[in-house]
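User: Could you write out the 3D structure of this protein bound to NAP? I've included everything you need below.
Assistant: Certainly. Input first, then the structure.
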Amino acid sequence: MKALVATDYQPLDRLTLAELPKPAAGPDEVVVKVEAAALNPLDLMLVTGAAKGLFPTEHPLIVGMDVAGTVVEAGAGVSGYAPGDRVLGFVGQAGSVAEFTVATPGPRLAHRPQNLDAVHAAAIPESGMTAVCLLRAVGLTGGESVLVIGATGGVGLYAVQLAHALRARVIATATAQDADYICGLGAADTVDYRQSDVVEETLKLVPDGVDVVVDLVNRGEGLAAVARAARPGGRLVSPLSGPDDLGRGVTPVYIGSFVPEPGDLEDLASRAADGGLRVEIGARYAFGDAVQAVADFAGKHIRGKVVITVP
Ligand SMILES: NC(=O)c1ccc[n+]([C@@H]2O[C@H](COP(=O)([O-])OP(=O)(O)OC[C@H]3O[C@@H](n4cnc5c(N)ncnc54)[C@H](OP(=O)(O)O)[C@@H]3O)[C@@H](O)[C@H]2O)c1
């Protein structure tokens, strides 16, 4: 089968579409014929080795972890999935920018609703489940104010919508070009991160500080700086890591790897299929243009997800 492959830790422009053996289903695994795959920042870090301390990779590495497709083989012990089932999921280092991949039934794999196409389904797993886990970890409740930093990216667009659905007042970072779009998803206000200081602008909108900061951009000491946008005793949640002490009684919540609960991915997929969750496809590429897709994802401002379709 063909796959987008890194043969070693390497620059992104040395990725190639190469021939690899088609995977087989081991016990408790299914093989999925890929119809669409989506990219996430970690995919790029695995290629370059930027994340090798935390996530060492074996080579050849197949790029991508988010997938939508159809089950073509079910291994011994699999229940609930059979050949012909339409699915979406997160496959980790099995790799998804390929003609076939291997997935493990569990919270990271779900059946795809009939009216959810593969392109939109592939754009959900990692970003959507991360947004769910962040809001759950920080215990966001209705009526609270929340600042989402990085709101126009993969995780951010879901976080804005899910926070709005929880009846939070959402302030979202967005350029002027994306402001109307993000308000249409439920943000009450936007702050232009390219033109202004996000903390100062947020404090103009909520002078005592917001209840919760969801920061999808900063890490380390950068998180202590943006924690000033939270009220004394507020919370800051990040999918990355940062200081234990953010000052002013602001509680840090760092989730590390996302750990979904059973049903989270089904719920996201059914909300997307019903129109209750908007899935923004920022750019869509044919399989033959997968190297370009990675380059654009790494280098351009793209609102929403980058998806590669596989014939
Ligand atoms: N722990 C986990 O399990 C987990 C899971 C998923 C993601 N993550 C991490 O979460 C982070 C976000 O992921 P993602 O998939 O949402 O990434 P993404 O799709 O690349 O989105 C990042 C967004 O942040 C915006 N941005 C960049 N600098 C900004 C700034 N200074 N202020 C406000 N917004 C800014 C970007 O806009 P521009 O295009 O204008 O730069 C982009 O819209 C990444 O670091 C990723 O590795 C962790």
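Residues 40-42, 126-127, 130, 149-150, 152-156, 173, 193, 216-217, 239-240, 255-258, 301 surround NAP (CB under 6 Å).
User: Perfect, thank you.
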